[in-house]
Every structure is written in structure tokens, then in C-alpha cells.
Design goal:
Layout lengths: L3 E14 L2 E16 L2 E10 L2 E10 L1 H11 L8 H10 L12 E6 L5 E9 L4 E11 L2 H131 L4 H139 L12
Subcellular location: Cytoplasm, Cytoskeleton, Microtubule organizing center, Centrosome
Protein name: Spindle assembly abnormal protein 6 N-terminal domain-containing protein
Organism: Rhodosorus marinus
């Protein structure tokens, strides 16, 4: 049956050696095993900073009976391993027990055995819950222990090397990512600058177009005003023309009436000379009236010609105004298109500004990543130093192992005494 590990942790302990007491961090391993039909308990105490420091305690039912009698323990052997593991857990630095239990390792008078104790200090006195006589491990066990440490350090060195390689790969990938982000940031800034310049140019053109459109509108309004005035003048001239036409018609009717009178008088002249003077007067009056009518007719003709010229001018002004109105409508349509384009460009500008902000955030992340890479470099350097130190420790441990192996061989195989040579 495999051993059952009940406790395997590093505890802050007080070690008394050579009349001095110092704090050490000891690795305490408590295992429960079944050998045959009997339950056995094994306790191992080691120090990671002192590879040759290894204390062991083994206990079966017989040994525990003696221990129970000497220290007046109340529990049975079957419950002892679990209870001992509970006491060790209360020796942890993060234990909530007040006061916290302490681990002591002290020398015994024989110089070979040491005493492993669990104490409870309080204001009145220090209570000793348990004391176990532990002994130094056999050279073979120390050899296995040191080999285990060497294997562990070798694995840790390999893992540290793998971590260093991974950090280097991550650093290279991060550097590539940083360069990529920097290139994208530069390209984005350039594109954003060009887009901003293009937008500003379009905005300036739009403002100039708005100014020209406003001037064109004012000009069209002035032309419309002139056209209205010309139409009013034309209407007035047309009224006067109609009045002159009416007067000319009345004058023609008078001329016809005078002509009829003249014909009548001519016919009546045959009746006598008495009517001669009267007829002469009527003729003179008729001639004067005819001259006046001819003058009025000439004036009316001149006014008609002038009215026709003004009408032609009004029609040409109306055509020009219509063209200007069409031009104004086209300009207004272009203005509306420019306004819509400007709105779209503003939206694009907002998008570009957002992208620029995101690029700035990426730049900050790049800076943070660079700092993390520097920290990783520092960690790799520290791990390299640790690996070198581990190699030195492994070298020293190998030397100690070789020395222990030589010492063990010398103890197990003593050299025979020299014997005299046998005669031939």
C-alpha cells in the first residue's frame, strides 16, 4: 500500500544548535503507511538551504505506546497521525489560532539525537504539546534526499530555461506586434492628416460657394426688382398708348366729319358765293385741325415705337432673369449637395477622430507592453542568475555526494591489514 501524505509544508521553525537559536524555514513531511498489517508513521524534517540537513522519525504501535506513557498522551495510535497533522497545521504563519503554535528543533545531550517539539507560548508559561526524538538520517537516505534535491533543482533549472525561452519568444512576438502597431499608428496618422486636409479644403470651397450663391441671390433679387419696375413702366406706357390711340381715333372721326362738311360745302358752293368766305374759314379750321392731328399721330407713333423697344427690353430682361433663376436653382441644388457632403465628411471626420483616439490607446498599450518586456528582461536575468546559482549548488552537492559515497564505501569495506609475503 502506498504511503499517505498527511502534511507536506514549509514551517517557520526555531532551531537551537551550538548554543545559538535561529529561525529557519524547515520542510516538514508527515506520512502514514501500512507495513504488513501494522500502521506506521514517518516524519521527515529538511532544510532547502542545507541539503545535508535531514532528520527522520519513525513510529509504530510499540514506539507510540512508550511515547504515550512518557508524555501522558490521551489518544490512541490510530488517531495520532491525524492529530499530529492538525497540530502542524496550527503552526502555519497564516494560522488563525491565538497564540500560534511554534516548532522547535533542539539538540539532545547525546549529540546524535535531536528533539522536535510543538510548543504553545502564552503569558504564563510555554506549554509543550508534543516532543519527538528525531535522528539524523542514514547516509543512504541522505544520498537519496540530496539526489532528490538535485533532480528538483535540475527540473527547476530546465523549467526556468523553458520560461526564459518562452519569455524570449513572447518578447520577440511583442516586439513585432509593437512595430506593427507603430507602423499602423503612423499610417493612420498620415491618412487622418490627409483626410483632415481634404475635409478642410472642401469646407473652404463650400464656404466660398455659399458666398457666391448669396451674391447671386442678391443680384437676382435686384434683377427681379428692375423687371418689376420695367413692367410697371411698360403698363403705364401701354395705358398712354391706348389713350393716344383713342384720341387718334377721335381725330380721324373729326377729320372724316370735316371732310364730309367740306364735300357738303363744295356742293353748296355752287349755290352761291355767300358761302365762300364761310367755307374758306371752315377749310382753314379743317387744315389746322388736320395739322394738329398729324402732329398727334406722329407723337403717338414715336411713343408706340418707344413702347415696343421697352417691351423688347423687358422681354430680354425677363429671359435673362429666367436664366439667372435657373442658375440660382442649380447653385442651390449644388449647395444642398455640398451641405449633405459636408455632413457626410463630418461623420467621416468623427470616425477618423475615433480611430485616432484608438490608435493613441494602442500606443499607450504599446508603451505598457514595452515596460512589461523590460520587466520580463529583468526576470529572465534574475532567473539566469538563479540557474547559475543552482548549477553551483548542484556541483557542490555532487561533490558532497561523492564524498559521502567514498565515506560510505570506506565504512562498509574496511581495508585489510598488510600481510607478510609468503615464501616461494
Amino acid at each position: 500500500m502506498a504511503a499517505n501524505t498527511l502534511f507536506d509544508e514549509v514551517l517557520e521553525s526555531l532551531v537551537a544548535e551550538g548554543g545559538k537559536v535561529e529561525k529557519r524555514h524547515l520542510n516538514v513531511v508527515l506520512e502514514r503507511d501500512v507495513r504488513g498489517r501494522e500502521l506506521s508513521l514517518s516524519l521527515k524534517i529538511s532544510d532547502s538551504k542545507r541539503p545535508l540537513f535531514l532528520l527522520v522519525f519513525e513510529c509504530g504501535p510499540g514506539e507510540y505506546a512508550e511515547l504515550r506513557q512518557k508524555q501522558r498522551l490521551k489518544i490512541e495510535f490510530n488517531s495520532f497521525p491525524v492529530k499530529l497533522a492538525g497540530l502542524l497545521k496550527e503552526c502555519r504563519a497564516e494560522s488563525h489560532r491565538e497564540p500560534r503554535l511554534e516548532v522547535w528543533v533542539e539538540e539532545v545531550d547525546d549529540g546524535v539525537t535531536k528533539q522536535f517539539s510543538i510548543l504553545e507560548p502564552n503569558e504564563f508559561k510555554t506549554l509543550r504539546h508534543l516532543s519527538l526524538h528525531v535522528k539524523e538520517a542514514e547516509p543512504v537516505d541522505v544520498d537519496l534526499h540530496v539526489k532528490g534535491i538535485v533532480d528538483r533543482l535540475t527540473r527547476e533549472a530546465a523549467e526556468a530555461g523553458n520560461i526564459a525561452d518562452q519569455e524570449k519568444r513572447k518578447r520577440a512576438e511583442s516586439a513585432d506586434e509593437i512595430r506593427k502597431l507603430q507602423n499602423e499608428l503612423v499610417e493612420s496618422k498620415r491618412a487622418s492628416s490627409e483626410e483632415v486636409a481634404r475635409l478642410q479644403d472642401k469646407i473652404e470651397k463650400l464656404e466660398n460657394s455659399q458666398h457666391e450663391t448669396e451674391e447671386l441671390r442678391k443680384h437676382v433679387q435686384g434683377s427681379q426688382k428692375q423687371l418689376s419696375e420695367a413692367l410697371k413702366t411698360l403698363e403705364k406706357e401701354r395705358t398712354e398708348s391706348e389713350k393716344l390711340s383713342s384720341e387718334a381715333k377721335t381725330s380721324r372721326q373729326r377729320e372724316l366729319a370735316a371732310t364730309e362738311k367740306l364735300q357738303f360745302l363744295e356742293r353748296a358752293s355752287k349755290d352761291g358765293d355767300k358761302m365762300a368766305s364761310h367755307i374758306g374759314a371752315l377749310l382753314e379750321s379743317s387744315a389746322a385741325e388736320r395739322a394738329r392731328l398729324e402732329s398727334a399721330n406722329a407723337e403717338l407713333t414715336s411713343k408706340l415705337v418707344k413702347c415696343e423697344e421697352q417691351l423688347k427690353f423687358a422681354e430680354s430682361a425677363k429671359v435673362a432673369t429666367s436664366f439667372q433663376v435657373e442658375k440660382l436653382e442649380v447653385a442651390l441644388a449644388e449647395k444642398e449637395a455640398l451641405v449633405a457632403s459636408m455632413s457626410s465628411l463630418r461623420e467621416k471626420y468623427k470616425v477618423l477622430q475615433k480611430q485616432f483616439d484608438e490608435r493613441e490607446a494602442l500606443a499607450e498599450q504599446s508603451t505598457e507592453l514595452t515596460n512589461r518586456l523590460q520587466e520580463a528582461d529583468h526576470l529572465i536575468s534574475s532567473q539566469k542568475k538563479t540557474i547559475l546559482n543552482n548549477h553551483e549548488v548542484i556541483k557542490w552537492l555532487n561533490q558532497q555526494l561523492n564524498a559521502l559515497a567514498v565515506q560510505s564505501n570506506s565504512k562498509s569495506n574496511p581495508q585489510p591489514a598488510d600481510t607478510p609475503n609468503q615464501p616461494d
